[in-house]
Amino acid sequence: MKVSDVRSTEGKYLKSEHLQGRRVTVTIASYQREMLGQGSDAKEKTVLYFQGKAKGMALNRINEDRLVDMFGDEMDDWVGQKITLGTERTQYQGKTVDGLRVVPSPHHQPQQNGGKPGLEHVVQQRSGYQLSEMRPVGKPVDDLPDDEVPGF
């Protein structure tokens, strides 16, 4: 048995390694505010939990903004919604790593959220593409079954 195999399945929270390079569709079952980190680095974050899954997903600002754009600012409205999770290359502590991401769905219209930068702005700023240039691929997220991923 490899140490990396054991470490990749440890813990209460979903990591990018758990997806094994795949995109998975899940249904949001609940959310909670939880203290993450230790000592002076501890921060309160929103953690999503999914139907039929043991691990929660701690939300960072990017994923939180994507969910707001997809479903609105009220987190209670997120419960029961299907989302797709994947990974994107990103910078973390000076290194390029795979970051866990809520994949923006072209099938959801961005919500109006009081002048806060919307998904169009976020996508353009981070990728250089206009959201309108992106094309839907495959079935709408709402039509997909939840995916099975070992260790998640």
Can you walk me through this structure?
The protein is α+β, with helices and mostly antiparallel strands and 152 residues long. It has one domain (12-139). It contains 3 helices and 5 strands. It has helices at 3-9, 61-71, 119-127; strands at residues 24-36, 43-50, 57-58, 82-92, 95-102. It has a 5-stranded antiparallel β-sheet with strand order 3-2-1-4-5, covered by helices on one side. The two termini are 19 Å apart. Residues 113-117 have low confidence and may be disordered.
Give the arrangement of secondary structure elements:
Blueprint: H1 3-9, E1 24-36, E2 43-50, E3 57-58, H2 61-71, E4 82-92, E5 95-102, H3 119-127
Antiparallel strand pairs: 1-2, 1-4, 2-3, 4-5
Percent helix: 10-25%
Number of strands: 5
Order of neighbouring strands in the sheet with most strands = 3-2-1-4-5
Mean pLDDT: 78
Distance between the termini: 19 Å
Shape: globular
Number of domains: 1
What is the string of SSEs from the N terminus onward?
HEEEHEEH
Low-confidence stretches: 113-117
What class, by secondary structure content?
A: alpha+beta
In short:
This protein has 152 residues and is α+β, with helices and mostly antiparallel strands. The protein has one domain. Helices cover 18% and strands 28% of the residues.
